[in-house]
Protein 1
Amino acid sequence: MANSKTDTYDKLRVVIVDDSRTMQAMLDNAFSARTDFRVVGFSSNAAAAVDMIRGLMPDVVTIDLNMPYIDGATLLGMISDLQTVCKIVVSDAPLKNLALAASLMRAGAALCLGKTDLATDPDDFFAKVRAAASQIDKSGTYRWNPGEEPDTRTTTGRMLPVRPEAQFPVPADEKSRLQFLSQSTLINNDRERRFDLVTRHLTRVTDYPVSLLTFIDRDTQWIKSASGLEVGSTPREEAFCNYTIAQGGAFVVANAASDRRFAHFTSVASSPDVRCYAGYPVTTSDGVNVGALCVIDNRVRTVSRHVLDQLAGMADIVAEMIDQRTPAGNR
């Protein structure tokens, strides 16, 4: 049986996310006029877009920045785990603000293009889209051979190599991260009231049944604080938070059971039957992602901006707590 790519002359499948019907029509007409693209879906709001993108798994998604309720930057975070989808921001704002453009690239955008680019030079616009899409590694992983220096480049500008002996990403600052943890009193499951207050707060304000604060050393994920779950540690290779600390921003998994990176995890295949995960890194004042704060549910869910905002805010508070600790770890 011929695959869909062959049947459609190797066309790249595109989802358009923009709250302007006019802009949707313009992009649709422009993409449809090309022989190498095929529009397979539209969405006017980010919440609906997440489900559509995860269901269709297109080659390319174009994202408007200014949308009601959930903006394009937040949408990037909500689909940041989809490494085989080329995410392109189509907005004039990043062209005028280099800091904004850089933050969008860190959040997962492979490319930032202006809406005016589409009108003034459509050939260049689509050449850039095609080039960005062609750089996506469809295996969804980044590997290197043992003994070689890792290639940490990705289309999003994030550092996400995979450790040779295990299938999980390793942060670019792994050496300094492990050094910090070895000198701290964080890599254990001894409960601390200040951290428990944070995870308890998160379960209350996000309506997620479980919240965890984790710290990962070379081989183990230590659950330093938990609300709604009693687990002290897990093998590192079965830690969702590997992706959170490596990515350096919000990391979301809407349905772990349908994601080949996580479906085999013990926590997914059996109790507690994890389905939805949302995490945010805990970053020290030195810029080291030493841990992760996350919420999980055994239901498939779309993660809201409110949840991501709460995670980001409480992760900052935990980072402040860690920065204020003495080497002896006074509590």
Note: The longest helix spans residues 305-323.
Protein 2
Amino acid sequence: MADVTLLFGIGATKAGTSWLQYYLDRHPEVHLWTHKELHYFDALDRDQVMEQIDGLCDKRAGLRARMRDASGAEHDRLRFEVAEIDRYLGLLGQGVERPQAYVAFLKKGRKGARVVGDITPAYALLSEDRLRSMAALGPVTKFIYLLRDPIDRLWSNIRMMAGWKGGSEKDIADRANWIFDRWTRGEEKALAERCDYEGPLTRILSAIPEKDRFLGFYEELFRPETVARICAFLGIASRPAPLETRVHASAPIALEPGRRAIAAEALAPQYDHVHRLIGRIPAGWHAAEVGV
């Protein structure tokens, strides 16, 4: 694999990873799986293989249903996406770790692309040992971790969750406030885990050599100079990026002032952690609101 750079996009959730996938997937020197987020390593480490398989099967069924009404190029695209899920189920369904088979899965169909990768934000929650083992999968392995203002990231994450069941804007807003209130009571463990920057940053800084890690900020991502830095980090040519495009944007629902104050108090330590571990926080973060 000396001719290939292995890329892991490891988060954070709602910090620009979908846009990064959108951009890199259209780059001629990059080959990514057609479906974002493989969840290979977290499924294995957290004993969630069957849950991942169930989700993939549901997605497959949805694609198959759409195929019945599709024709021509659309039918062919859907058939390809179904076949890719089947291919991944063949790997994940074995339920045991097969590092070389995983790398071979990523490389299949690359047609000379210099970078292959897996963008799964949940990987930021993996252990330091797991990150080290991932870093050892290839001679050149790169990690990208994007951060977003803690309050904005939390509320975007909540709005995404609230929108899963659809409904009117009021329905989504009501669900978002309900999820937020559950988070304040400690009843949303997974959501709370994704609010932590100290743990992932500490593990990344320890496990991944500086030359192989890119730490960036959502607030600075949609700029030509940032895109150029990412391309240089990956060893690929910088190409124009759709800087005005937003991918998987959550419903535009405002965070009420009272709840914003609660979030600011709860997340205040995260601003300190980022400043301490990275050395700065970008303009536009709400640090002043929490006294940082």
Note: The beta strands are 5-9, 30-32, 115-119, 141-147, 213-217.
Protein 3
Amino acid sequence: MEPAIHPRVQEIERRANIWIRRSQMCATDDEYRWITATHSVNFYARFAPFADDDRLLATALWVYWGFAFDDARCDNGPLSSRPDQFAILAGRVQRAVEAPSASDTRERLIPPLQKIVGTFRTLGSPVQVRRFALAHRAWLSGVVWQIGNEAAGTIPDLDEYLGMRLLAAGGEPTFAMLELANNAEIPAGELDSPPVRALTEMAILVAALDNDRHSAQKEAMRGHTGQNIYTVLMRHHRLSLAEALVSAAALRDRVLDRFLQLAARVRARASMELRTYLQGLGHGIRGNAEWGLRVPRYLSLGQVPDPLDSSTSLHWAESPTDPRAAPGVTPSIAWWWDENLA
């Protein structure tokens, strides 16, 4: 999976920052600075490096919105420990995605979301927009699950955590936007086939486990020491933090190895649209890692300077972590290794 990024990322990011300021998505200047510091155009420009400028802008704006919503309503604030209240808000948010005529001015983040999805309707086909809406619903359902665990003080076991993280990580809508960004609608028989669903889920989980690693220091410093792959492995597998780091990396690498094997087989008989999508999954895995290792969201807190020089090159391992260090494959993901998928 070679690195790639859209050639006009800086210009599109400038347009995005103007849009965010005008949208009133951010309540304060500090919030505006924090959200724009996610560099979400840089993020999605790695997923869709060949996209039309306007399509990349529209899809990246949802990523900015997703970070704003996650920060204000999921990870922090009064709803972050109230699954009942968050579920009500999630329903209102989802209705705003699905109904062009929906109106909800009680939540400041809903009108900007409706504008973004309105642009999706202009740029994409009804099928593409509907697929995004369903993926958006899946994400919100996962966040309800996650907040429910937080409210109960529960550290789920590994199988439950992986099932929850596949939804709550936001990968479903992020990868669903590849069709919109690339203007390539995948035939339903291909996109909904078990092998392609498995590949999509594997890409989501690899990125989610990478994000657990990227955000570990930030969450620890903010006192968010609840659910992540490390606390799960430490609690239920009785590992030290150092052992959990190795075990989580081995699990991530095992999934990525299976992704590469299956993607090569599926690509051989895929339509052009599906090949574009599979390429996007690979770009997303690589791009998410590159972005996450450099973005201020994970490298700094508030006004703390970035500890890494973003101009330096990243170094990648030549081989996977020893698979013997990985925890056993759990029921939630075991079907990815089904021989019938190929």
Note: DSSP finds 15 helices and no strands in the chain.
